Amino acid sequence: MTHPDLHARHRAALPDWLALYYADPIELTHGEGRHVWDADGNKYLDFFGGILTTMTAHALPEVTKAVSEQAGRIIHSSTLYLNRPMVELAERVAQLSGIPDARVFFTTSGTEANDAALLLATAYRRSNQVLALRNSYHGRSFSTVGITGNRGWSPTTLSPLQTLYVHGGVRSRGPYAHLSDAEFADACVADLRDMLGQTRGDVAALIAEPVQGVGGFTSPPDGLYARFREVLQEHGILWISDEVQTGWGRTGDHFWGWQAHGQSGPPDILTFAKGIGNGMSIGGVVARADVMNCLDANSISTFGGSPITMAAGLANLSYLLEHDLQGNARRVGGLLIERLRAIAVHTPGVREVRGRGLMIGVELAKPGTGEAAPEAAAAVLEACRAGGLLIGKGGGHNTSVLRIAPPLSLTVAEAEEGAIVLERALRDCS
User: What's the CA gap between 139 and 117, in Å, rounded?
Assistant: First the structure.
């Protein structure tokens, strides 16, 4: 546990709404590989990676070396000066994005990336109408809170945008849950068309997470957003794919989450953050040139694209690609999902195990009712910590989900180690 004085100082100096995990919060002091240690010397297997951000490994030598060497040269200059690491990373991200004639703008977070994407889309389309998915989460800023369809993370209804919410992000709950995948997709497309019939017709964009992160790792059937895109293109509406949590190969099957819905082409705008910096503050927007260049006012970024974060991103991306961590996520994640589903068969409190690659959700419910079980989720979180395993939690207004998203270098042995701890915690707390 964290020393009581640090917890007291945290509470005295920081906002009440700044959430902390655990009844006795822990102070993490260092990490290596897939493990971290707290101030009392306890070792934990990390199945949450700083909210899906430590993507490759803790204290990855290649990233640490790149950061150290860059810090010895120059840490900061701003975008008012040419910046070689930023240009090099932009070139690589543009090429990997799948968006033709792509341009890249770097920010410091996923929130800021989505904020910039909304600025681009609304300026390009000259409209403040935005379509978003129910149960979604897109960030903490005033504009991104305004398009977040998850009331637990939306502290105000005030917004500079008119947001209209469509179905599609949640497959196993809601009014369409009983339908087959094909019927579900048909119903969601019909809902989208109906919603567009109620607008002025100049909607700026639809923003969607391929796998909803904070919402509990839910996702639609493959291809749904491709069908959405066909409808959007009829009206000139842009598609923004929020890849803050799904990008960089975490889902295993694809490098980007949108590629599971790529039958109608890539998104117009793609946002990213989290894993690319392996803990350094990097976010960004990729868009085709006419969209990215539509702004008719000056703009810069003071901290976005800083030399030190770009150096980290370049080293981290190189490591990810050279060691095929996407393939590892697919292989090890597939084994872990099947292991957790086998556990769920004998655990009445588990409603569903879902996910892709190393992005796995375990939805808990009150046995026999299907109702959310937030107390059980909190208890399992505590029990896992006591057993040496760190996981996350989330879910929409009527769900309780354990979120599992380890670094993509997770080994089979570590996956089994974590599954054993989680199995014990689930059975003890059911």
Answer: 12
Rounded to an integer, the average pLDDT of 370-378 is 94
299's tokens: 């703009």
The structure's pTM equals 0.96
Which residue, 161, 178, 63, is CA-closest to 114? Answer: 161
For 131-141, the pLDDT digits (tens) are 999 999 999 99
The mean pLDDT of 359-388, rounded to a whole number, is 96
Residue 127 in tokens: 């409209």
Which region, left, alpha or beta, applies to residue 255 given φ > 0 means left and ψ of -120 to 50 means alpha? Answer: alpha
Residue pLDDT, tens place only, 315-333: 999 999 999 999 999 999 9
User: 76 burial class (0-12, 13-18, 19+ CB within 10 angstroms)?
Assistant: exposed
Which three-class secondary structure state does DSSP give residue 7? helix
SS3 state of residue 299: coil
User: Which two structure tokens, joined as six digits, stand for 258?
Assistant: 């949108």
Task: Map residue 85 onto helix, strand or coil.
Answer: helix
User: Which are the contacts of 265, defined by CB distance < 8 A and separation ≥ 6?
Assistant: 229
Distance, in Å, from the CA atom of 251 to the CA atom of 371, rounded to the nearest integer, reads: 28
245 DSSP 8-state letter: T
Task: Give the whole-angstrom CA distance, residue 133 versus residue 136.
Answer: 6
